[in-house]
Amino acid sequence: MASQTAAWTLTGQRGISSLKFVENHPLPALGHHDVRVRIHAASLNYRGIAIALGKFGLTIKDNIVPASDGAGVVEAVGSQVCNLKPGDKVCTHMTTHMADDTPATFADIGAGLGQHVDGTLQSHGIYHETSVVKMPDNLSFEEAATLTCSGLTAWNALFGLKGREPKKGSFALASGATVIATTSNDDKASKFKSLGAHHVINYKSTPDWGTTAKGFTLGGQGVDLIVDVGGAFTLHQSLKAIRPEGGIALAGLLGGASNPDMPSLMDGLSYLCTSRGLLLGTRVQFQAMNHFIEENGIRPLIDEEVFGLHEVREAYEHLEQQKHFSKVVVKIC
């Protein structure tokens, strides 16, 4: 069995400059409940940049292998692993040692892949069996590598509450939704349109995008469900857009975690809406999403520029500078 792997590690938290490529990074021994995965592709998240900078109090294990999202092939399994076998194609799940139906907390994620457990920017990885799920058969490794964080969070935001059931098609469009997307420039807006979004708002040229979004709804009643990834500085606009009895899924902190003028819980009374915080999704949700993707022939969109294993710094810079459209992928083999 392999005892070493080619990998990127974080030598500190000084930003992207802390990334170091190591030809012979040690692999831990395969435990009874572990699997060894040959990683074929990984995808990047803004979380990785935040970890590299030590933002939000995020800590790391020394010389951690970054990134949580990936896809590959199981090469070996521990003696107590029952549901996986060599040859299975799998996606990584960010958390570890979690029950299948238990929602993740910030503490669970902090203890997981890319932060305190070696992640996916390596050619081989040893993961607890709870940190992988079988990937959809209809996807390439590059496409499947995008599902761990963004895909699962979107699935949970749209369908995580009881009574919200996906229908045949693609995630949001599948539910018969009128999709209103926001983006930072007109080029990306055109791409959203080509993907089927009914309305697209450039939030830089239209800072009052919440009012604009509400105007797109039937009778100006407001939006049924908003997936807010901006955090403290976008909530005001989300509240402007929401309808009475609508819901806001709080799914990210791209705009920051605090703001002196941030709305409070009592704004739920003023706007007669529900807000729901969520992090990723459970293994049960991951498996349901993958089944839905396979059954409906859905293919996640990846950025047109795919990077190689030796180009990880360039890939993170591409993400940090917002040059991407959709997920930034690193092809490992």
Automatic annotation (TrEMBL):
MF annotations from Gene Ontology: oxidoreductase activity
Domain of life per record: Eukaryota
Ranges for domain Enoyl reductase (ER): 14-330
UniProt-listed InterPro entries: ADH-like_C, ADH-like_N, ER, GroES-like_sf, NAD(P)-bd_dom_sf, Zinc_ADH-like
UniProt-listed Pfam families: ADH_N, ADH_zinc_N
Protein name: GroES-like protein
Species assigned in the record: Aspergillus pseudonomiae
